[in-house]
Amino acid sequence: MSKRVLSGIQPTHDSFHLGNYLGALTQWVELQSTHDAYYCIVDLHALTIEVDPALLRKRILASAAQLLAIGIDPKKSTLFIQSHVPAHNQLGWVFECITGFGEANRMTQFKDKSQKSGTDRTVVGLFTYPMLQAADILLYQPELVPVGEDQRQHIELTRDLAQRFNARFGDVFTVPGAHILKSTAKIMDLQEPTAKMSKSAASMAGVIELLDTPEANIKKIKSAVTDTGREVTFDEKEKPGISNLLSIFSAITGRTVKSIESDYAGKGYGDFKKDVAEVVTEALKPIRETALAYLKDESALLELLREGADRAEAVAGQTISTVYNSLGLLPRKK
Ligand code: ATP
Ligand code: LTN
């Protein structure tokens, strides 16, 4: 049996962005050929931001369509929706009961997001978010979790919780490792190249969306913030804007940053941006078209997700029974 991987993505926006794609999703596609892959649309995590029911429904479907469009193959991978498998909440609660308050309070994603919305508008779910994430992961006993750099701390917590549970209650969980690709671990916002490209950015002007039209994305890349000087060279400190575009170009074409730099020796930023825009939009065009085609047949999409949930539930159900048993919870009489 091949090694298992699991990852998740939130349906919090109409479209995934280039950071999600290059930082995490392209690895999802690669890993499904060599691993037993479980990929989850974490709709319950999306409840930690303000909910518009009609919009959330649409975004969950759009997330599934995009994952299929980038090449997640339901024959190779188990693709499912988190809320379809109730064991996620069940194990999430168990982890809330073995996580220290101070430990949860140290999570930087919580600190950042709660600071942005203020104490009164921050929901408790945002605080317990990492424990639900640990449950998403550990239910499936994966060895690897492909994510972007921003998730490193959550994976560390997940490892701690697995080890803590195993030490107290018996060897139940595989302790997983994060799988983070260095070069694309953090794609930056094109307008603010010192901040990560994010679905919840204040302005979408620096965010390249997979479902946006090629024209819109070309415009965004051409107006990307660049740095003083005119050499196309990689220097994250002095030239964060150009370095980000170089990382993007390199990730999409598979070429090294060095060879791209030498192509643009003596040319200006304008030529370079034009070519970045071209390779990005060429790569995204088929993804957008395929995703839109999937969205035309909602019932076929839901059927695929049902099959995924059935497969996921079989694995998750076993783990949660073992966990309950190890904790001394009595099984319900058959
Ligand atoms: P938000 O910023 O609103 O929290 P997000 O854009 O980070 O959302 P998620 O659903 O949280 O999106 O992330 C999905 C995956 O994409 C995760 O593995 C995350 O690490 C990765 N990811 C997100 N943004 C980037 C980025 N800018 N560069 C590289 N990877 C990223
Ligand atoms: N917290 C993650 C999304 C997420 C996830 C997961 C990632 C929820 N559950 C399980 C990997 C494995 C994020 O914000 N990107």
UniProtKB/TrEMBL annotation:
Pfam families: tRNA-synt_1b (PF00579). CDD domains: TrpRS_core. It catalyses: tRNA(Trp) + L-tryptophan + ATP = L-tryptophyl-tRNA(Trp) + AMP + diphosphate + H(+). Its EC number is 6.1.1.2. GO terms for molecular function: ATP binding; tryptophan-tRNA ligase activity. GO terms for cellular component: cytosol; mitochondrion. Belongs to the class-I aminoacyl-tRNA synthetase family. It is found in: Mitochondrion. This is tryptophan--tRNA ligase. It is an enzyme of class 6 (ligase). One of its GO terms (biological process) is tryptophanyl-tRNA aminoacylation. The keyword Zinc does not apply. Its main location: mitochondrion. Gene3D superfamilies: HUPs, Tyrosyl-Transfer RNA Synthetase. The keyword Protein biosynthesis applies. Keywords: Aminoacyl-tRNA synthetase, ATP-binding, Ligase, Nucleotide-binding, Protein biosynthesis.
